[in-house]
Amino acid sequence: EAFPEALYALAVEKMGRDRIDLSPETLFETFLVTDIFPNTDAQIEASRAIVPMDDSHRAQLASDSIQAYRTEEVKAIVKEYMARLRESFKRAVAVHDFRDGAPMTLDAFVELVKRHELMPLISKPDLRQIFVACSQIERMKNKDAVPDTLSLSSLVLAVYHLADRIYGDALYIDKYPTPEARVQKLLAKMYLLR
After folding, report:
1. Maximum C-alpha span of the chain
2. Which of 62, 111, 163, 175 has the smallest CB count inside 10 Å?
3. Alpha carbon separation from 17 to 11, 23, 33 (Å, rounded)
4. Same domain, 81 and 145
5. What are the helix (H) ranges across the chain?
6. What pLDDT is attached to residue 67?
7. Which DSSP letter does residue 149 get?
8. Are residues 14 and 89 in the same domain?
9. What does the pLDDT look like over 142-157, one tens digit per residue?
10. How large is the average pLDDT for residues 76-89?
11. Is the pTM of this model over 0.85?
12. Which domain of life is it from (predicted)?
């Protein structure tokens, strides 16, 4: 019962009593945003024991995902949403690069994921691993591709990975047992359930 008061006392101690420029509410909010939340996120991610993938594992991951998602059903689902994906790609890129036709950077990829409210469903390290894996596949296919970026076709591969990571885990595998079901759910969440 005394936890809120103890947390506020910790905020005052940490932020300093001399911060008279801040109201008690602002002081507490600043403490949560700058100290508690980042540390909590770091602890959660560390507790998952996420091991960085090496290049061969990334290539295998991408290859496995491509094979599992190379069905006519998945292609039909993606085709249905392609105009929306293209528009999302352009919007996310425009936030970080004003050139028309620029490739997607990691920041733009994160922007797209945030904009479609997927961040609560996937960890930041998983998101980064997906981006890096898809970017490397892009470079393997196209030697002229800008390093550490995605094209629209690589974004489609990233969508497959997102669907697989979010809806292919133990929590959802019974509900979304096929690649088609996972892609349909992800794209519906991104574009229809908003």
Report:
1. 64
2. 175
3. 9, 11, 18
4. yes
5. 3-15, 24-31, 37-47, 55-68, 72-96, 106-115, 124-141, 152-167, 179-191
6. 78
7. -
8. no
9. 888 888 999 999 999 9
10. 94
11. no
12. Eukaryota
**Radius of gyration in angstroms for the set of CA atoms belonging to the chain, rounded to a whole number:** 20
Q: Between these two residues, 7 and 180, which has the higher pLDDT value?
A: 180
Q: Is 130 exposed, middle or buried (0-12, 13-18, 19+ CB in 10 A)?
A: buried
Beta bridge partner(s), residue 104: 150
- Residue 11 sits in the same domain as residue 107: no
pLDDT, average across residues 134-138: 90
Q: Between the CA of residue 110 and those of 29, 93, 114, what are the distances in Å?
A: 24, 10, 6
Residue 127, amino acid: L
Residues 43 and 61 in one domain: no
Owner of token pair 């300093």: 16
Residue of 1 and 91 predicted with greater confidence: 91
End-to-end CA distance of the chain, in Å?
37
CB-neighbour burial class of residue 107 (10 A; exposed 0-12, middle 13-18, buried 19+)? middle
Nearest to 25 by CA among 11, 46, 39: 11
Query: What pLDDT was estimated at residue 51?
Result: 46
Q: Other C-beta atoms within 10 Å of 169: how many?
A: 12
**Chain mean pLDDT for the chain:** 83
Structure tokens at 69: 């998602």
Q: How many domains does the chain have?
A: 2
